[in-house]
Amino acid sequence: MQVRRLHPWPSSVAEAESIQDRLRGHVELTGPTEFALVAGLDVHYHGDDAVTAAVVVLDGGTLAPVEQVVAEGRVAFPYVPGLFAFRELPTLIDALERLTVTPDLLVCDGYGLAHPRGFGLACHLGVLTGLPALGVGKTPFIGTHEPPGPERGAWTPIAHEGATVGRALRTQRGVKPVYVSQGHRISLDTATGQVLRLAARFRLPEPIRHADHLARHPS
DNA sequence: GCGACAG
DNA sequence: ATCTTGTCGC
Protein backbone atom coordinates (compact mmCIF):
# COMPACT_ATOMS: atom_id res chain seq x y z
CA MET A 1 0.00 0.00 0.00
CA GLN A 2 0.99 3.64 -0.46
CA VAL A 3 1.84 5.99 2.42
CA ARG A 4 1.85 9.78 1.97
CA ARG A 5 4.84 11.89 2.96
CA LEU A 6 3.02 14.89 4.37
CA HIS A 7 6.01 16.56 5.96
CA PRO A 8 9.82 16.74 5.88
CA TRP A 9 11.65 14.87 8.62
CA PRO A 10 12.10 17.11 11.69
CA SER A 11 15.60 17.94 12.89
CA SER A 12 14.56 19.46 16.19
CA VAL A 13 11.98 19.09 18.93
CA ALA A 14 10.35 22.36 17.87
CA GLU A 15 9.95 21.16 14.27
CA ALA A 16 8.52 17.84 15.38
CA GLU A 17 6.00 19.57 17.62
CA SER A 18 4.93 21.95 14.86
CA ILE A 19 4.35 19.01 12.50
CA GLN A 20 2.09 17.43 15.11
CA ASP A 21 0.25 20.70 15.62
CA ARG A 22 -0.35 21.04 11.90
CA LEU A 23 -1.36 17.43 11.15
CA ARG A 24 -3.70 17.37 14.13
CA GLY A 25 -6.18 19.34 12.04
CA HIS A 26 -6.45 16.38 9.62
CA VAL A 27 -7.68 13.89 12.23
CA GLU A 28 -11.26 12.64 11.81
CA LEU A 29 -13.09 11.21 14.81
CA THR A 30 -15.82 9.26 13.03
CA GLY A 31 -15.63 6.44 10.52
CA PRO A 32 -16.55 2.84 9.73
CA THR A 33 -17.69 0.44 12.44
CA GLU A 34 -16.62 -2.82 10.79
CA PHE A 35 -13.29 -3.79 9.28
CA ALA A 36 -12.61 -6.65 6.89
CA LEU A 37 -8.83 -6.58 7.45
CA VAL A 38 -7.17 -5.43 10.66
CA ALA A 39 -3.44 -4.77 10.94
CA GLY A 40 -1.29 -4.85 14.07
CA LEU A 41 1.96 -2.85 14.15
CA ASP A 42 4.92 -3.06 16.49
CA VAL A 43 8.64 -2.24 16.64
CA HIS A 44 11.45 -4.11 18.33
CA TYR A 45 14.62 -2.32 19.46
CA HIS A 46 18.02 -4.00 19.43
CA GLY A 47 21.57 -2.74 19.72
CA ASP A 48 22.19 0.99 19.87
CA ASP A 49 19.70 2.25 17.32
CA ALA A 50 18.56 -0.69 15.20
CA VAL A 51 14.84 -1.41 14.95
CA THR A 52 12.68 -4.07 13.34
CA ALA A 53 9.15 -3.04 12.43
CA ALA A 54 6.45 -5.65 11.88
CA VAL A 55 2.97 -5.40 10.40
CA VAL A 56 0.59 -8.34 10.58
CA VAL A 57 -2.74 -8.28 8.74
CA LEU A 58 -5.53 -10.47 10.10
CA ASP A 59 -8.95 -11.34 8.76
CA GLY A 60 -11.26 -9.05 10.70
CA GLY A 61 -13.79 -11.81 11.28
CA THR A 62 -11.81 -14.98 11.91
CA LEU A 63 -8.55 -13.28 12.99
CA ALA A 64 -6.68 -15.68 10.69
CA PRO A 65 -3.35 -14.25 9.43
CA VAL A 66 -3.57 -12.85 5.88
CA GLU A 67 -0.15 -11.26 5.37
CA GLN A 68 2.88 -10.27 7.40
CA VAL A 69 5.88 -8.06 6.61
CA VAL A 70 8.96 -6.80 8.43
CA ALA A 71 11.32 -3.90 7.76
CA GLU A 72 14.71 -3.14 9.25
CA GLY A 73 15.72 0.40 10.12
CA ARG A 74 17.32 2.80 12.57
CA VAL A 75 15.86 4.87 15.35
CA ALA A 76 14.99 8.14 13.62
CA PHE A 77 14.68 10.55 16.55
CA PRO A 78 15.75 10.74 20.21
CA TYR A 79 13.22 9.56 22.75
CA VAL A 80 11.20 12.51 23.94
CA PRO A 81 7.85 11.78 25.60
CA GLY A 82 5.21 13.12 23.22
CA LEU A 83 7.51 12.71 20.20
CA PHE A 84 7.78 8.96 20.46
CA ALA A 85 6.21 8.48 17.02
CA PHE A 86 9.19 10.04 15.26
CA ARG A 87 11.44 7.24 16.51
CA GLU A 88 9.73 4.43 14.66
CA LEU A 89 7.61 6.05 11.96
CA PRO A 90 10.05 5.66 9.02
CA THR A 91 10.53 1.93 9.63
CA LEU A 92 6.83 1.36 10.19
CA ILE A 93 6.09 3.18 6.92
CA ASP A 94 8.62 0.99 5.10
CA ALA A 95 6.84 -2.08 6.40
CA LEU A 96 3.38 -0.76 5.47
CA GLU A 97 4.56 -0.04 1.94
CA ARG A 98 5.58 -3.67 1.52
CA LEU A 99 2.03 -4.87 2.12
CA THR A 100 0.27 -6.21 -0.95
CA VAL A 101 -3.12 -5.81 0.72
CA THR A 102 -4.55 -2.63 2.21
CA PRO A 103 -5.84 -3.04 5.77
CA ASP A 104 -9.10 -1.40 6.89
CA LEU A 105 -7.90 -0.64 10.42
CA LEU A 106 -4.48 -0.01 11.98
CA VAL A 107 -4.10 -1.20 15.57
CA CYS A 108 -1.12 0.73 16.92
CA ASP A 109 1.10 0.14 19.92
CA GLY A 110 0.92 3.52 21.70
CA TYR A 111 -1.46 6.44 21.93
CA GLY A 112 -3.62 8.42 19.56
CA LEU A 113 -5.63 11.40 20.78
CA ALA A 114 -4.58 10.76 24.39
CA HIS A 115 -1.38 12.70 23.85
CA PRO A 116 -0.01 16.05 25.10
CA ARG A 117 -0.79 17.74 21.76
CA GLY A 118 -3.60 15.39 20.76
CA PHE A 119 -1.54 13.69 18.05
CA GLY A 120 0.10 10.43 19.10
CA LEU A 121 1.49 7.64 16.91
CA ALA A 122 -1.94 6.23 16.03
CA CYS A 123 -3.12 9.64 14.73
CA HIS A 124 0.10 10.09 12.78
CA LEU A 125 -0.12 6.69 11.07
CA GLY A 126 -3.82 7.21 10.39
CA VAL A 127 -3.32 10.58 8.72
CA LEU A 128 -0.32 9.44 6.62
CA THR A 129 -2.18 6.37 5.35
CA GLY A 130 -5.70 7.78 5.33
CA LEU A 131 -6.84 4.62 7.12
CA PRO A 132 -8.88 4.23 10.30
CA ALA A 133 -6.44 3.83 13.20
CA LEU A 134 -6.58 3.37 16.95
CA GLY A 135 -3.96 3.34 19.70
CA VAL A 136 -3.52 0.87 22.55
CA GLY A 137 -1.22 1.94 25.39
CA LYS A 138 0.05 -0.41 28.09
CA THR A 139 0.71 2.24 30.74
CA PRO A 140 -1.12 5.48 31.58
CA PHE A 141 0.30 8.54 29.85
CA ILE A 142 -1.71 11.75 30.13
CA GLY A 143 -4.95 12.76 31.81
CA THR A 144 -6.76 11.29 34.76
CA HIS A 145 -9.06 8.32 35.11
CA GLU A 146 -10.66 6.05 37.68
CA PRO A 147 -9.67 2.39 37.63
CA PRO A 148 -12.28 0.39 35.69
CA GLY A 149 -14.17 -2.44 37.42
CA PRO A 150 -12.54 -5.88 37.56
CA GLU A 151 -14.69 -7.58 34.92
CA ARG A 152 -13.77 -7.89 31.25
CA GLY A 153 -15.30 -5.02 29.27
CA ALA A 154 -15.35 -2.50 32.14
CA TRP A 155 -14.01 0.93 31.19
CA THR A 156 -13.63 4.48 32.50
CA PRO A 157 -13.02 7.70 30.58
CA ILE A 158 -9.60 9.34 30.42
CA ALA A 159 -10.07 13.09 30.94
CA HIS A 160 -7.54 15.68 29.82
CA GLU A 161 -8.09 19.44 29.83
CA GLY A 162 -11.85 19.06 30.11
CA ALA A 163 -12.22 16.56 27.25
CA THR A 164 -12.47 12.78 27.02
CA VAL A 165 -9.39 11.63 25.11
CA GLY A 166 -9.60 7.87 25.59
CA ARG A 167 -10.64 5.01 27.86
CA ALA A 168 -9.00 2.71 30.37
CA LEU A 169 -10.38 -0.68 29.30
CA ARG A 170 -10.27 -3.98 31.16
CA THR A 171 -9.82 -6.63 28.46
CA GLN A 172 -9.42 -9.57 30.88
CA ARG A 173 -10.87 -10.08 34.35
CA GLY A 174 -8.46 -9.06 37.10
CA VAL A 175 -5.72 -7.99 34.65
CA LYS A 176 -4.28 -4.49 34.28
CA PRO A 177 -6.33 -2.33 31.91
CA VAL A 178 -5.14 -1.09 28.52
CA TYR A 179 -5.51 2.52 27.39
CA VAL A 180 -7.50 3.00 24.20
CA SER A 181 -7.61 6.18 22.15
CA GLN A 182 -8.76 7.24 18.71
CA GLY A 183 -6.15 7.60 15.99
CA HIS A 184 -8.04 8.54 12.83
CA ARG A 185 -11.43 7.94 11.20
CA ILE A 186 -12.87 6.02 14.15
CA SER A 187 -15.18 6.80 17.07
CA LEU A 188 -14.20 6.09 20.65
CA ASP A 189 -17.06 3.58 20.97
CA THR A 190 -15.91 1.70 17.87
CA ALA A 191 -12.27 1.77 18.98
CA THR A 192 -13.23 0.39 22.39
CA GLY A 193 -15.42 -2.31 20.85
CA GLN A 194 -12.70 -3.39 18.43
CA VAL A 195 -10.01 -3.60 21.12
CA LEU A 196 -12.31 -5.64 23.33
CA ARG A 197 -13.20 -7.96 20.50
CA LEU A 198 -9.57 -8.35 19.38
CA ALA A 199 -8.46 -9.05 22.97
CA ALA A 200 -10.84 -11.94 23.61
CA ARG A 201 -8.11 -14.23 24.94
CA PHE A 202 -5.32 -12.01 26.28
CA ARG A 203 -4.74 -8.55 27.69
CA LEU A 204 -3.48 -7.10 24.39
CA PRO A 205 -5.31 -7.24 21.05
CA GLU A 206 -4.36 -10.21 18.88
CA PRO A 207 -2.92 -8.10 15.99
CA ILE A 208 -0.46 -6.37 18.34
CA ARG A 209 0.58 -9.69 19.87
CA HIS A 210 1.26 -11.14 16.41
CA ALA A 211 3.24 -8.06 15.34
CA ASP A 212 5.22 -8.07 18.59
CA HIS A 213 6.12 -11.71 18.09
CA LEU A 214 7.13 -11.18 14.47
CA ALA A 215 9.27 -8.11 15.26
CA ARG A 216 11.16 -10.10 17.91
CA HIS A 217 11.55 -13.25 15.87
CA PRO A 218 11.66 -12.24 12.17
CA SER A 219 11.36 -15.29 9.95
C1' DG B 1 9.36 25.88 40.22
C1' DC B 2 10.42 20.72 39.75
C1' DG B 3 9.90 16.23 38.40
C1' DA B 4 7.57 12.91 35.67
C1' DC B 5 6.47 11.48 31.13
C1' DA B 6 3.58 6.41 25.29
C1' DG B 7 7.87 2.90 23.64
C1' DA C 1 12.36 -0.23 24.46
C1' DT C 2 15.95 -3.12 27.21
C1' DC C 3 18.87 -5.30 31.26
C1' DT C 4 16.80 -9.88 34.46
C1' DT C 5 15.03 -14.55 38.98
C1' DG C 6 11.73 -16.42 40.99
C1' DT C 7 6.98 -16.93 41.79
C1' DC C 8 2.05 -17.34 41.16
C1' DG C 9 -1.99 -18.84 38.54
C1' DC C 10 -4.43 -21.07 34.76
TrEMBL record:
Enzyme Commission number(s) from the entry: 3.1.21.7
Top EC class, one word: hydrolase
Gene3D superfamilies reported for this sequence: archaeoglobus fulgidus dsm 4304 superfamily (3.30.2170.10)
Keywords: Cytoplasm, DNA damage, DNA repair, Endonuclease, Hydrolase, Magnesium, Metal-binding, Nuclease
Ligand binding (Mg(2+)): 42, 109
Name of the gene encoding the protein in the UniProt record: nfi
Cofactor(s) of this protein: Mg(2+)
Protein name as annotated: Endonuclease V
